[in-house]
Amino acid sequence: MEADMDVGPPERGHCVGNPLFRTKSIERILADSDAPEHRLKRTLTAWDLTGLGIGAIIGTGIFVLIGTAIVGDAHRPGAGPGIMLSFILSGITCALAALCYAEFAAMIPVAGSAYTYSYATLGEFLAWLTGWNLILEYGVACVAVAIGWSGYFNNILKLCGLELPYWATHPPGADGGIANIPAAIIVLLVTGILIVGVKESARATCGIVLIKLAVIAFFIAVGTSSVDMANWSPFMPFGFAGVGAAAAIVFFAYIGFDAVSTTAEEAKNPQRDLPIGIFASLAICTVLYISVAAVLTGLVPYSQIDVHAPVAEGLRMAGFKWGAAIVATGAVAGITSVLVVMMLGQIRVFFAMSRDGLLGPWLSGVHPKFRTPHHATYLTGVAVAIMAALIPIGEAADMTNIGTLFAFVLVCVGIIVLRYTQPNHPRPFRMPFMPVVPILGVLACLGLMYFLPWMTWIRFFVWTLIGILVYATYGMRHSKLATRPSTKQAEAPRPA
Hints:
transmembrane helix, two-stranded antiparallel sheet, 20 helices, mainly alpha, amino acid transmembrane transporter activity, 67% helix, 2 strands, globular, Amino acid/polyamine transporter I, 496 residues, 1% strand, membrane, transmembrane
C-alpha cells in the first residue's frame, strides 16, 4: 500500500526520456505539498494576503526608485512628470500577468509561484530556469531593500541629533567603510520573525502597511495644496524613450504581487483568497503610485528632485520640513514590510525547489513547532545579511526586474499551454479573453525588458548560464521525477 501511495499520478512527459521536458502533474504537486514532512500551516486570510501584497509593493519603489526614474541617470533618460504614464505602463503589464497568476494560483495553491506553474506546464528545465531567476530576483531585491532601509534609518537618526560612524554604515572600500551594520541587523530581525510563523509575519506586515498608507495619504494631502501645474511642463522632457525607460525601473515597485502567490500553500482558502489578494493589492498600489507621482512632480521641478529620498526631500524643498521627517519615518516602516515579503518569497522558492529534489533536501525541512521552512529561512537570512553588510549594490533594481519579467513571460505562456493540455481541469478563477490577455502580457513584459540597460542583459545571461551548470550537475540527477518509478513500473502487477 505504501509503495502505491508513493508513486502517485504519472507525470506527463516523464516516460518520454528527455528530462528537460518532463512535467509534474497538478495532482502530484498538490499531493507533495500535503505530505506531513513538508506540510506548511494554512493560516492566511484574504486580508492577510492583501496586506502582504501591499507590504511588498509599496516601499523601495515609491520611496527611493521613483527619484531615479523621474530624473534619469548616466545610462538612460528620465521620464520627468511623465512618470505618471510610466506607472500606468508598468501597472498594465503587471495586471496582464496578474490575471495569469490568479488562475494558476487558484488551480495550484502551493509554494513556488512561477517556478511551480512552469513545472506543471513547460517542463522541468524551464521550471528550473524560472526558479533560478526568482532566486536572483528576490535575493538581489532583499539586499537592495535592506541597504535602502539602512539609508533612511540613518537619516532619521540624524534628524534626532544622532549619527552612526561612517565605517558602521558603509561596505568595505577605499573610503573607510567596514560594514553596513544596520542593514545586516534588520535582515536578521526579519529572519527571526519569519521563523516564528507566517501568520505572525503577516500581522506585523499588516500593521506596518497601515502606518505607511497613512504616511502616503499624509504626503498626498499636504503636498496637493502646494502643487504648481507649471512643473508638469514639459510633461515628457525626453519623449516616450524616457517614459519607457522609467517604466522599466519602477516595475520594481510592482513585483510584490508575485510574492503573494508564493504563500499560496499557507492560505486558508487559496482558491478564493489568492485572486482577491493579488488584484486588491495591485489596484490599491497603482492608484497610490500615480497620485504620489503627480504630487511629487508638481511640488518641485523634476530636475531638482532628490534621487536618494525623493518623497521626503520633495516636501522639505516645498517648505514642509516637519512633513519630511514624518515621511522619512513612514519610509522606514514601508521598506521594512517590503523586506519581510521579499524574504518570504525567496524562502518559499528555495523550499519548493528543494522539495522537488532540484536543490539540496536540507532546504525543505519544516520546523516541528512553527511549521515554517526554517532551514531555508536560516540560509536566506544569513546570506542576505552578509551581502547587505559587505556589498555595495549597483543597478539592483534592474537585475531584479529582468528576472521577474522573464518569470512573467513564462507564466503567461504556461497558462496558454495548460488551457490546451488540460482544458477540463477545475479552475476556481478563470482568466477572461483567452488567449489575448496572456499574449499581451508576453509582449508587454518583453517591451519593458527592451528598455533595460545592456549590462543588465549580460549579467542576466551569465546568471542563467551558471544556473544551467547547476541543473546539469545536480538538479537533473536528483530531481524527484528522475528518481520516481516510471508509469510502467508503477502499474506492474505484484507477485502473489
